[in-house]
Design brief:
Low-confidence stretches: none
Shape: globular
Number of helices: 5
Distance between the termini: 22 Å
Mean pLDDT: 89
Number of strands: 3
């Protein structure tokens, strides 16, 4: 699956993969594809291969940024 990530995100600014310590402390209900993505890059920003722009926050920032942007209020059930 890494090959698909590399092609799709080739023009993005990528971070290093998530550390094993953070990976072991993530919530259990995360999709497997997101866990696989974190093994490729812990967050990403930029243009993707379909012409869209994408920003995915670092795993350790998700809770704080979701609260700051009131994600649960505007998109209930979003991680």
């Amino acid at each position: 699956m890494i090959t698909k990530f590399e092609e799709f995100f080739k023009d993005c600014d990528k971070n290093l993969p998530v550390s094993e310590d953070i990976l072991l402390n993530l919530p259990e209900n995360l999709p497997e594809s997101y866990i696989e993505f974190l093994s490729f890059s812990d967050g990403i920003e930029g243009g993707v291969s379909n012409g869209s722009y994408l920003q995915l926050w670092k795993a350790e920032e998700l809770k704080k940024l979701n609260e700051l942007y009131k994600v649960e209020e505007f998109i209930p059930g979003m991680l």
